[in-house]
Amino acid sequence: LWKDVTEKSPKNGRGWMNYGLTQMSKGDYGKAIELFNKALEFNPNYSTLFINLGIANGGIGNHEKAVKNFNQAIVLDAGNDASYTFFARYYLEQNNYLKAKELAEKAIALNSKSYMAFEIAMAAAQALGQWNELNKLAQQTLTFVPNDAKALQYRTAAAKRESISTPKIITQSA
């Protein structure tokens, strides 16, 4: 479908980005980056495009480009919690828990109901052994997702001051 869109409307930047997302979902990060860069020709200031470039570059282990793209997404739309959330997820995957938590907290400040940001913040707080903070984050999550299994696990971990195996973080694209 999205390939067809790019053929019929070759100047449709969102079409190119969505075609890139189909390739990224298949694990073809190189092709996704190529298509995202094509989309940049038509939408050079689209923050979501830079988020996806950050994700794809991270997927091929190009840390420098991933960070550059996530930062550009934030510059273009500092009020968009998704830019911070996906950047936080990237740092969590890199085991940089301090940076992951810092960015997740910025996302939460912008959107107090961002489940993914809370997941990342809880995982990072646990990894850092910040038990009081982990309990607080779990409690906050439970206010908008009552009986959430992950938040309940994290709350138990905080009470026991003992790490649980970290549940997988949501892996959606931007």
Describe this structure in words.
By secondary structure, this protein is mainly alpha-helical. Helix content is 73%, strand content 0%. Helix 1 (2-8) packs antiparallel against helix 2 (13-25) and helix 4 (47-59) runs antiparallel to helix 5 (63-76). The protein is elongated and about 55 Å long.
Q: Pairing-aware structural class of the strands and helices? A: mainly alpha
Summarize model confidence as the mean pLDDT. 93
| SSE arrangement, N to C | HHHHHHHHHH
Rounded Rg: 17 Å
Share in helix: over 70%
Largest sheet: none
Any idea what the shape is? elongated
Percentage of β-strand residues: under 5%
Distance between the termini: 19 Å
Number of strands: 0
Oligomeric assembly = single chain
- Tally of alpha and pi helices: 10
List the helices and strands and how they pair.
Layout: H1 2-8, H2 13-25, H3 29-42, H4 47-59, H5 63-76, H6 81-93, H7 97-110, H8 115-127, H9 131-144, H10 149-160
Helix pairs in contact: 1-2, 2-3, 3-4, 4-5, 4-6, 5-6, 6-7, 6-8, 7-8, 8-9, 8-10, 9-10
